[in-house]
Design goal:
31 strands; 8-stranded mixed beta sheet; Methylamine Dehydrogenase, Chain H; alpha+beta; disordered C terminus; about 1150 residues
Length: about 1150
């Protein structure tokens, strides 16, 4: 049995692709080029309308369908591998939107698309009126568009079109043409051989070749092709049949395809003739009639697909039978690659298997693709749609003497969301219910942000919240974090907590059930809105990146084999011998897994997580029995347990069988086809890996439960067959924890961060810039992990010439899950999250880290970045990392520690504590930083002046910032170097002044540093501008000198202060005289305590204009101070006397009044 293909679907919107926005362009005006937009018809079936449960279409839903959902879409794959494929969709609001489809996440040439381009036209674009041409010399892409106003637009897209803003767009980006034939005929389809030659098909039949004319700077008619003579055409037009509204002329063109390799044009007409024209001579080279039995007369769908890999095969879908069939043709050429003819590969057309409901639902083909898979094999891909769903099928065609065709379905990831439900365990809180639903809504990549926003608007009744008539209306403006918060607020706010009847308690169980139902209602609305973009319009093989892509209405799907075949999970036939031998055990374990309810599984998984995160305090056997007794025995019936035991007894050596199976899964050596890279290769790989991890998780979980049940039974015969079960359980537990770490990471949304993070300076390797740009393109933490691995492989390893996806996905799978270094990889991935400022994500994943030194170190940094310093300190104390253990790590997260350890290799423990103190300082945890500095000092084993200076410097800085001035003073006194204390003292003074603790400086004796400290205080005093401000450095220096016994110096500094104060004081204020006289008295008292011959000092002169002390100094004696004091006293007396006279004058009684 061949494995079915997987279609990984991604939504095409700004939020999903990580773009900056949409670039809106409007084409220049042209005469009579405008028509009214066709209204969007409600094409939903009655069953579909009823299934939605939300009534008729409202304004928001209509606007969403017109501005987001495509009327037609496709993918242009340039023939040059280095060129960027383009996803295009024709919208109902008279616009065409373009998206870059390139593996730019690992490309060396481009930094990724920044915008999607939306081009607005004055009229509706024809469904088949769009085509592309690529110029390999200029790297430009030409877009040709036909509108219902019969106007042809030629738009030039530069190589960096998706990186440009509107201001940088070239001026001559659009040419407008209306050839003469457009006046009398109605164009309906368009194709091109290059940017100079276009082919336009008419609704009336036939087609025309247009060529570019430089004189008119537009396209003009060149050659008309009719297939019929004039009289024959006139006869058809005059017949009664031509009067019918659904009349199709026999010469109407159904499909046009150009082959640049062979210089031919393939034309399929309504009379079911395939004609081949030369694009050089315009001559008809061959006509091939296609036999059609039971063909519909009024309408039918026909498709023509050209193999873009070898250009040697052609596939035609035609109504050969009731549901149509596919005709495969080989293009015969000569040695010069000139066309010779067409030859069928099969004697009869290939019929595709129709779904089971073909008798009730009409299926219509919407896309056809054929490409060469190898020298002797082809792959045919068809897309079908009905009024309820869509379907993709693939056929492998084995070429040879007898062509063999084998069909296989494609599993669409969109279908998995329809049956998404879960049980509510009795212990689950209401917040957990909302969290689970939110994860299920946001972590399905197929659900678009625009569908979520529209569903929220409809759910909350905001039908007119936006300007619905705006042609540039967007439904994905909100980030996912903001959108998630609004959804939770809307859904939870719609459910009320009610009190129980005849009781004082609240009905919490009923509230959880109502909340679950409300989330289920909103989820169904989201799925309904997202189903608008489900329809497949085209399937294209992208040879440049080996991708088979499906163009949906608002999504793009990538087809390829899963990394882990589903047959392993289903236990069906497999070619691998290890898997085949383990089939009975797989089926038995899955049977046990299915027997457990959702609530029992949730509780069991939580218990498994505790087993993997904590050290086992009991033996493995006791832990297994405890787990079985608590979580499994109550969920399994006695009959089920007996059946499991009997089946295990019938197996031969089940432990070794399981071990071989796990080794096979870890090897990843399964049969797979060619690789399928995507437009964002890392995102596709992450999705494929997640599918595989979910499958492996189911197997490992089931096998664990099976071993737990078997090992807990009292049957001695069974126990004899389970030798080595304990070690196998430990291995499976480790595998389970690693897988669930990645699954949890896939549920965590990357948070928006500043463009320059605090740790970006240490990312100096060659891949750092790409890592920094990747975080904006990745939606979840797991996608970021996969992008890191791909970037590292692409930048540092030899690039494979072909099949890049296959190589990358094997590299990722083996590194993430199979490698013996996977625990190292988990640590490095967690460290990269911290480097990118995603501490909250790391905090949510911290439970998967164990108790090794490096993991405790990461825990400490995570807590530190999440503002939990106490937990961080507790982790750091248990996390001493010898620098030798970091040799296996390449993350830039450990660079600072490694550099410091290289600087002081003789003191590893002190070096670690010093590094932690630096980290705590950067996080403003200064008191804890002081503690680790003290630990670093106590850990020194020998004298090392350089390291001691470094430690004391950190200690001093942290103590000053924490207000621990005594500790800072002690650090100053312990510094071995005498060059640093002056800087330390100045900073200590500033810190104490800022904290208002300058007076504490007098408690520090500072032996050997008195002169230095005095100079620092004097410099601060002399540089003071206003001597009245606090702190007054003059008074601090005065107190310091008095405390040191320097009486003359104290008098000198206080005298300088009063002289400066006197020069700037206001004469009329008596309070200032009081302060001045007080300072004079202090100076006089100091000088009078000295001997008469020693009652003097040197004081700096004061520049009254600048209020500053200047040199040279002057000698001041006791007599000079006394004179100054007397003069100030007289000035005060004069001021008091004058103020008293003024008061008396004011108190006199005016003349003419009696007292």
């Amino acid at each position: 049995m061949r494995e079915p293909l997987k279609e990984t679907v991604y939504s095409l919107d700004v939020q999903t692709l990580g773009l900056r926005g949409v670039l809106h362009l409007h084409v220049p005006s042209f005469e009579n080029d405008a028509t009214e937009s066709t209204a969007f018809a409600d094409s939903r079936s009655p069953r579909h309308k009823q299934a939605s449960g939300f009534g008729p279409r409202n304004e928001v839903e209509t606007a969403y369908a017109n501005t987001v959902i495509a009327r037609n879409s496709g993918i242009f794959a340039p023939p040059v591998k280095s060129a960027c494929p383009i996803f295009w969709k024709i919208l109902r609001n008279q616009s065409v939107q373009l998206f870059s489809v390139a593996p730019d996440s690992i490309s060396e040439d481009t930094s990724g698309a920044a915008y999607s381009v939306c081009i607005h036209f004055p009229a509706d674009v024809l469904d088949h009126g769009i085509t592309f041409a690529h110029n390999a010399h200029t790297s430009e892409t030409s877009l040709f568009v036909l509108t219902t106003a019969r106007v042809l637009y030629s738009i030039t897209l530069p190589a960096d079109a998706f990186m440009r803003t509107a201001e940088n767009w070239p001026r001559s980006w659009c040419r407008i043409s209306r050839p003469a034939s457009f006046v009398v005929r109605s164009p309906m389809a368009l194709t091109c051989s290059n940017e100079q030659n276009l082919y336009v098909a008419w609704q009336e039949g036939g087609f025309v070749r247009l060529v570019y004319d430089e004189q008119v700077d537009g396209y003009v008619d060149n050659v008309h092709f009719s297939h019929n003579g004039y009289l024959s055409s006139l006869k058809q037009l005059l017949s009664l049949q031509a009067l019918r509204s659904d009349y199709v002329p026999p010469n109407r063109v159904l499909c046009l395809r150009c082959s640049a390799t062979h210089n031919v044009l393939f034309v399929l007409t309504a009379d079911m003739n395939l004609r081949v024209y030369s694009t050089i001579t315009n001559a008809l080279l061959k006509t091939l009639p296609i036999v059609c039995d039971n063909a519909p007369k009024a309408y039918f769908h026909a498709f023509l697909a050209l193999d873009t890999v070898s250009n040697n095969f052609l596939a035609i879908y035609c109504p050969y039978v009731a549901w149509g069939a596919i005709l495969l043709l080989r293009i015969e050429t000569n040695a010069d690659n000139h066309f010779l003819g067409l030859s069928p590969l099969t004697p009869s057309p290939i019929q595709a298997p129709i779904p089971d409901d073909k008798a009730f639902v009409p299926w219509i083909v919407t896309g056809l693709c054929v490409h060469t898979n190898s020298r002797d094999s082809l792959v045919i891909t068809t897309a079908w749609k009905s009024n309820l769903s869509c379907l993709i099928q693939c056929a492998d065609v084995k070429l040879g003497h007898k062509v063999k065709v084998s069909w296989r379905p494609v599993a669409n990831s969109l279908d998995a969301a329809d049956d998404d439900f879960f049980d509510i365990p009795s212990s689950m809180a209401s917040g957990d219910v909302s969290e689970i639903w939110l994860q299920r809504i946001f972590f399905q990549k197929a659900l678009s942000s625009s569908a979520l926003e529209v569903a929220l608007l409809i759910y909350t009744g905001q039908n007119s919240a936006a300007d619905l008539n705006n042609p540039t209306l967007s439904f994905d403006d909100m980030g996912r974090q903001e959108l998630g918060a609004k959804i939770v607020h809307a859904v939870v706010g719609n459910v009320q907590l009610e009190a129980e009847q005849q009781a004082m308690n609240y009905d919490y169980d009923g509230y959880r059930e109502r909340l679950y139902n409300e989330w289920d209602r909103f989820y169904k609305l989201v799925l309904f809105m997202d189903n608008y973009g489900k329809e497949v319009y085209d399937i294209v093989y992208l040879p440049g990146i080996s991708a088979l892509a499906a163009a949906h209405a608002n999504k793009i799907g990538l087809l390829g084999l899963a990394l882990l075949p589903d047959s392993i999970c289903a236990g069906v036939e497999n070619t691998n011998t290890s898997v085949t031998a383990a089939e009975p055990i797989i089926k038995l374990s899955l049977l046990l897994h299915d027997a457990l309810s959702d609530s029992a599984l949730s509780e069991s998984r939580f218990a498994l997580r505790e087993l993997t995160q904590q050290e086992m305090t009991y033996s493995v056997g006791d832990s297994i029995w405890t787990f079985y007794d608590k979580y499994l025995s109550q969920s399994l019936s006695t009959e089920m347990t007996y059946a499991l035991v009997d089946t295990m007894l019938s197996m031969k050596d089940p432990v070794n069988t399981i071990s071989r199976l796990i080794r096979t899964i870890k090897s990843g050596d399964f049969e797979r086809s060619d690789g399928t890279p995507s437009f964002l290769t890392s995102l596709l790989i992450s999705r494929s890996l997640l599918d595989s991890f979910h499958a492996v998780n189911t197997i490992v979980e089931s096998l664990l439960f099976l071993l737990f049940v078997a090992a807990s039974q009292e049957s001695k015969e069974l126990q004899s067959t389970l030798v080595g079960c304990d070690n196998l359980c430990l291995e499976l537990l480790t595998d389970w924890s690693v897988i669930n770490f990645y699954i949890d990471a896939s549920r965590l949304l990357m948070e928006p961060t500043a463009e320059e993070s605090a740790d970006s300076t240490i990312m100096a390797d060659t891949s750092a810039d790409k890592i920094d740009s990747l975080k904006t393109r990745c939606t979840t933490a797991f996608e970021f992990f996969v992008s890191l691995i791909n970037t590292d492989f692409y930048c540092n390893c030899e690039k494979p010439e072909t099949d890049l996806y296959s190589v990358l996905i094997q590299v990722c799978y083996r590194q993430l899950f199979c490698s013996s270094r996977r625990h190292i990889l988990v640590i490095e991935l967690m460290s990269q999250l911290l480097l990118q400022g995603q501490a909250s994500l790391s905090r949510q994943l911290i439970g998967w880290l164990k108790t090794s030194a490096v993991e405790m170190y990461l825990k400490g940094h995570t807590y530190l970045n999440c503002l939990e310093p106490d937990k961080a300190v507790a982790s750091f104390r248990r996390a001493f990392i010898p620098v030798d253990e970091l040799a296996d790590f390449s993350s830039a997260f450990f660079v600072d520690y490694q550099d410091l350890a290289a600087l002081y290799p003789q003191e590893p423990l002190a070096c670690y504590y010093l590094h932690i103190s630096m980290c705590l300082m950067n996080a403003a945890c200064f008191r804890h930083a002081v503690t680790f500095c003290e630990l670093a000092i106590s850990s020194l084993t020998e004298s090392n002046k350089a390291m001691e200076t470094d430690i004391y410097y950190r200690m001093f800085k942290s103590a000053c910032a924490a207000g621990l001035f005594k500790t800072a003073y002690m650090a100053i006194m312990q510094v071995p170097s005498r060059q640093l204390p002056r800087e330390f003292l100045a900073e200590l003074l500033s810190s104490m002044a800022d904290a208002g603790c300058v007076d504490q400086i007098l408690n520090f004796p500072m032996p050997g540093l008195q002169k230095t400290f005095d100079d620092i205080l004097q410099a601060k005093a002399l540089n003071t501008v206003d001597v009245t401000l606090r702190p007054s450095w003059y008074h601090v220096l005065f107190a310091w000198r008095m405390n040191q016994g320097n009486m003359r110096g104290a008098a000198a500094i206080l005298f300088e202060r009063l002289v400066r104060f006197q020069s700037q004081m206001i004469v009329s204020q008596r309070s200032q005289y009081a302060q001045l006289l007080e300072d004079y008295l202090v100076v006089l008292n100091i000088l009078r305590t000295l001997p008469k011959n020693d009652a003097w000092f040197l004081a700096s002169r004061v520049d009254s204009a600048r209020n500053k002390c200047v040199v040279p100094q002057r000698l001041v004696t006791l007599e000079d101070v006394e004179k100054g004091y007397s003069k100030a006293l007289q000035s005060l007396a004069t001021l008091v006397s004058s103020q008293s006279d003024n008061v008396q004058v004011d108190e006199q009684v005016p003349a003419g009044l009696t007292s």
